Amino acid sequence: MDRRGARKDLLAGATFVAFGLAFAITASTYEVGSALRMGPGYFPLVLGALLVLLGILIAVTGFVAGEGGEIGPVPWQAAGLLVVALIFFGFTVRGLGLVPSLLVTVFLSAMAGRHARVVPAVVTSAALTALSVLIFVIALQLRLPYFGPWFG
Amino acid sequence: MGVLESLGLGLETALTPANLLFCLIGVALGTAVGVLPGIGPTATIAMLLPITFGLEPVTSLIMLAGIYYGAQYGGSTTAILINLPGESSAAVTAIDGHEMTKRGRAGPALATAALGSFFAGTVGTIALALFAAPISRAALEFGPAEYFSLVVLGLIASIALASGSTLKALAMIVLGLLLGTVGQDIYSGTPRFTFGQRELYGGLNFVSLAVGMFGVAEILRNLEGETRRTVVVEKVRNLWLTKEDVRRITAPVLRGTGLGTVLGVLPGAGHVLASFVSYSVEKRVSKHPQEFGRGAIEGVAGPESANNAAAQTSFVPLLTLGLPANSIMALLIGAFIIQGITPGPNVITDEPALVWGLIVSMWIGNLFLVLLNLPLIGLWVRMLTIPYGVLFPAIIAFASIGCYSLGLNAYHVYAVAFFGILGYFLIKLGCEPAPLLLGFVLGPLLEEYLRRALIISRGDPTVFLTRPISLVLLVLAAAAFALAVLPAVRRKREVVFEDE
Q: Which residue of A9, A11, A21, A23 to mutate against B (max B Cβ within 10 Å)?
């Protein structure tokens, strides 16, 4: 039996079980009701239970068959940078305004590339910010201020 | 209203200058994202959805649809020239198309793809026009029980046709359905799974979900390995087909068009399936099957016609029933909702100009594509020299602005990050994101039909089995599921999808 293949299915199964449990347990705190008068909890509770069941099935079949293959490399640093870039944008776009917020966001994401270096990333960031302003604010008339209230 | 009258109305709508312009923009953008690997039509449409808010409903749908079928064209261009299918349905085209390029016959291959696609697109559009009205009339008779069973059938059928593990696809659908329940309950107003955050009362946004799962997750996939590519493209000379070529492609184009028109209506990867089936049919009926894989022009003509015809007819369930056949159609449902139109069988009678304008625009768009693609082929290929290090930060920038501009809500941007990471890890674990998106879009509908049907039947769950249409639909769903898990069919399916 190939343990590595099993690991992929085990992880997938565990993910589904976790989501299923989280939804089912939370749903059971809402009014469940009956089939005739379904409460808000009924549908998610049933689906959550179904997802737990499917998760277990996936894990079991993965363990028996074990043909999932390698998971492969994960670009942890890139994933982290992209998440930070997106959260930074959401958090600051109102306060800092579009231009400074987008400059930082694009710079951070450009740094997520393989072989990324600071100077090309700065150039990319400036160019893409200018392009975005041109497309979204000037051409499409989206109401996003260039600079926000945090600048006083 | 007769078909001719309807098409006349459609022509009138599609030929206004604004609609022509946005049709052109749509197919040009579609060609671009079809050519560029690493960004597909799903992510593009998702990112552009928020900004189409200001357009007329028909104009925005014309553009978004253009991106979809334009991408089919662009994908085959790179498949033929550099053996890099930009879109999954173009994978088959690469087999013989690229062989033709290696033998200095890139021009005829491209011309075959373009002309075959144009012919198939025309037939697909006519089929759509003929079937749309009768199907939607039949659907008007449906009650909540029938709709519930129809949605179940759609969801199950979409996994029966997908590649990969059926169990995982089913789990992804259920997870999608659950994510769709986040937000206020429509009947009681109780906020569900909102963690007390008011911003989540309206539910998770499907634009964020689609951009995260199809845009950000795809970027992470591409950042795993070496992304530098050297593109060597020889100049394409002589696009003309010889008399012999024309004779050889006629039958495959006709067969591919027929197959694609029928298979495109099926939920799931109908257009991908169509091109694979067409390829194996052509190989089987050919008098010289040994040429396949070595530059047989039939291997380009058949699949290219099939996937383009299917791209047109995959609009049938959307326009007649308000049900999406694939993840792109799910996004178009969102486009309808953003514009304040509830998709369903009523749309065709309530908004005839919109439906027929969209249908006719697709034929015009196909014409644009032939004109855009054949003479400007060099321009599209040059786009491949855009380094990925610039392309993906651009996707992040457009995604951030696009999602934030939906109600100026920062949560929509956080959701992109969340779904990007979730989608990436699920893909790594062998779970494709498309069923999840379908489940997410259909979840609220499924719950509403279920609850309404059971209220009408006074809580009697056998209502789904005693009403004949509902029963037939559920039996079909059960059959589709049985087919998907039967070992013999599974093996065959893996053969069909092995090149994906």
A: A23
